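Work Package 4 report. The design task specified in the project plan requires that, given a folded chain encoded as structure tokens, an amino acid be chosen for each position. We show below one input record used in the internal validation round.
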């Protein structure tokens, strides 16, 4: 045998390779020398199935030119069966002289994209992003869209049928006023129309649900007795006594919280006993209510109001005005000197004060014919 020498000793065969003196193979009866296989060439016109980086592809030669096609399939027994069918198709076309040199016939056909199946909650989260991109204000996202998103999370069902939609609306109506639940129903219809346009839904399950009819309830103003109890409770409260003057002005002048928060000393004329309401310190466009995030705006109605101050209000403002107060300084601030957070005030301070005063909850926006009278 050329290229090496065999040595046999005690039933052990050693093969010495003169081309590489460091290589020596030992063969025994238990580990015989493997038979050398002849290299086989691929038959003319045959298509080879190859794997590159774990992905299958085909390679063949036709009329002296090499062709390759990536199948877009991972290397697996099942995918190799698919690849073999495609290879057989190419071999047959070559054999019958109908081979497509453009390879268009053999390339994998791109399937139409199938919309990703998402749960209602994940789909609504995408809808929120879409609305933000369309210019919906951050305050609307915070006050309307995100609370509805939280309700969908608690509902914890994918809504695809009219019954699913009706069940969810019933949950909303059990927790919300007719006005708010109808607003949410309108929002849900718009959400599903967007989902249909995006290919995630075929029908709008909320389309046939009618708004609930409800009577408009007029907000009951605080009575003089209730106002007196609230102010008395605030004045001597262990945690919230610092909010007494702010609360007194809210109830006496009927201001919106953002208007009272935004009051500056330039708006108050103690000599003339007048106060001018022409702006507010409102929540930021993204809905944040903290003092540092608030933005100065015109009033909600755009009107400028001049109100007369009774003697007790004049004394209240005069008593809290610093000697070196600047016209742009805020009249009311938090304990740290920042603008008051209306969300924190309404959810923590106001609710606690009404509870301790024994007064039924109403928002801190007073509307009464007795507001501008001096308290007894």
């Amino acid at each position: 045998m050329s290229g090496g020498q065999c040595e046999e000793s005690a039933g052990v065969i050693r093969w010495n390779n003169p081309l590489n003196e460091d290589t020596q193979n030992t063969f025994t009866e238990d580990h015989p020398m493997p038979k050398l296989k002849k290299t086989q060439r691929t038959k003319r016109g045959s298509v080879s199935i190859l794997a590159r980086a774990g992905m299958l592809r085909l390679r063949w030669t036709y009329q002296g030119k090499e062709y390759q096609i990536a199948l877009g399939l991972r290397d697996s027994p099942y995918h190799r069966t698919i690849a073999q069918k495609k290879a057989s198709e190419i071999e047959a076309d070559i054999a019958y002289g109908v081979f497509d040199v453009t390879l268009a016939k053999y390339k994998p056909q791109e399937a139409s994209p199938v919309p990703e199946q998402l749960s209602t909650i994940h789909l609504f989260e995408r809808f929120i992003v879409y609305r933000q991109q369309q210019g919906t204000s951050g305050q609307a996202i915070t006050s309307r869209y995100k609370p509805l998103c939280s309700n969908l999370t608690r509902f914890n069902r994918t809504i695809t049928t009219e019954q699913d939609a009706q069940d969810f609306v019933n949950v909303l109506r059990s927790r919300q006023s007719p006005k708010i639940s109808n607003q949410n129903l309108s929002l849900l219809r718009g959400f599903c129309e967007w989902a249909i346009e995006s290919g995630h839904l075929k029908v709008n399950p909320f389309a046939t649900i009618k708004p609930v009819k409800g009577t408009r309830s007029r907000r009951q103003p605080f009575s003089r007795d209730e106002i007196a109890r609230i102010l008395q409770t605030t004045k001597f409260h262990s945690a919230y006594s610092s909010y007494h003057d702010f609360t007194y002005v809210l109830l006496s002048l009927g201001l919106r919280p953002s208007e009272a928060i935004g009051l500056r000393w330039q708006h108050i004329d103690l000599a003339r006993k007048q106060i001018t309401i022409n702006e507010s310190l409102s929540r930021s466009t993204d809905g944040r209510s903290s003092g540092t995030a608030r933005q100065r705006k015109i009033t909600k109605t755009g009107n400028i109001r001049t109100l007369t101050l009774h003697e007790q209000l004049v004394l209240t403002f005069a008593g809290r005005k610093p000697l070196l107060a600047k016209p742009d300084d805020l009249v009311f601030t938090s304990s740290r000197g920042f603008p008051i957070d209306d969300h924190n005030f309404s959810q923590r301070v106001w609710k606690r004060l009404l509870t301790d005063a024994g007064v039924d909850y109403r928002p801190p926006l007073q509307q009464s014919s007795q507001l501008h009278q001096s308290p007894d």
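The CA atoms of residues 17 and 23 lie 6 Å apart. Validation will be extended to a larger panel in the next phase.
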